[in-house]
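Tutorial sheet, problem 5. The two components below are modelled jointly, 357 residues in total.
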Amino acid sequence: MSLGATLLLIVIGFGAGGFGALAGVGGGIIITPLLAIYFGLPMYQAVGVSLVAVIATSTATSALYVERHITDIRLGLTLELGTTTGAMLAALFAHRVNRGTLALLLAGFLLTSAVSMVRKAWSSRKEERQTEIPDYRPRNYPLGLASALVAGGLSGLLGIGSGPIKVPVMYLFMKVPLRVATATSNFMIGVTAATSAYIYWGRGDVHVPVAAPVVVGVFAGSMLGARLASKVRTFYVLLLLIGVTSWLAVEMIYKLATGGFS
Amino acid sequence: MRRDDRNADRMVALTLKAGAYVAFSLIVAGLMLQSVTGSLKIATVGLVVLLATPVLRIMVAGIQFLREHDIKYALISAGVLGIVALAYILRVQAL
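Model answer (structure tokens):
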């Protein structure tokens, strides 16, 4: 890796980690497509690096939420039974999935994330109140575990955190407060991504010269972002991320249509 | 939230922080060393620490639950650990 490429990878990690933490979304979603589209990395290797970056975001930011007692460790561990199983199976079979199919799935998930961020941006226009977390008891564990299995599978296939699946399920169906759901999802993605990262690593799909600088950037970005999150208007950060994810989805589809992934 | 959760929270947060700082320092040092020696060994060790941190975090939570005699969640922690261990064992079995 040339010095220029290494620095660029640090900047990419910093941007993904920083804006992700500012907006309270993972940020892992943009690393796989960036590496696959602009760095010419094969899909499997882009996913391998992104998984390591996802572990970095989770590790760097979830300590903060755990300390503030927002994360529900019991709920997180329980759902991790589902996410790790899904992640393991997906990682084991990833090479059997056609690269074009992976690219299409990723484009679909980028669009899903963009839509979920539009909703988040809409609700963040109202002033945010940092109220006390109300008492709650998670319900509907079977549905929670089933979605966790799917979220883990997507994570292992695409190198993403799959917050846009877990957070709505915990909030809407398990009746967990939104802040708790977001923090707990963020907590879970570390173990989930690690499970599939071991398999990608064992197969030689985690390229250290690419992963190391990306992780450095992600760490610095997400630690800074998580600390500034309360001082910055989430709305504008979300607008930027909506733009980036939509653009990447279009680029993925374009590259797919022109045979770039075959 | 139960009162005794505060202890588990503190231990888990500490593990995550320690893992993050150690991995980050090693990778930064490794990248600098690479420009001198050309070897990425230290940076690789940093990545390994990063990959090990989530597993350590499950163990810490599991031990904390055991100490609080919360058998149900100690078992759940062990279950997650078992799945992660299985993935680690299967890591070279590319299907």
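Marking note: Chain A touches chain B through 54 residues (CB under 8 Å). Full credit if you identified this.
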